[in-house]
Amino acid sequence: MNNEQITSHVKEAILEKLINKPAALEMSETFTTLGLDDLDKIEVIMKLEETFLIEISDDDADSLASLTDIVSFVENTL
Question: How far from 48 is each of 9, 17, CA to CA, in Å?
């Protein structure tokens, strides 16, 4: 799976949690800047685990703040 496909899946998982959906998500966006709380983050992480068939530890999940962080983590895990 290439970077573009991973980015698309990550953005899709995050957009599912947003009430007010922006026209575009910037890679520098974080859960906080998007208005997502800890429960939303957990649900996004679970969705990514399911989508990419990977396991994300609690420590790794805590270190994932921006979309860039998430995409890089998934790329390195796959």
Answer: 8, 13
Residues 6+ apart with CB under 8 A from 53: none
Active-site annotation holder among 37, 38, 59, 62? 37
Domains held by the chain: number: 1
Q: Which domain holds residue 51?
A: 3-11+30-77
65, part of any domain: yes
Active site (annotated) includes residue 58: no
> pLDDT tens-digit profile of 19-69?
888 888 999 999 999 999 999 999 999 999 999 999 999 999 999 999 999
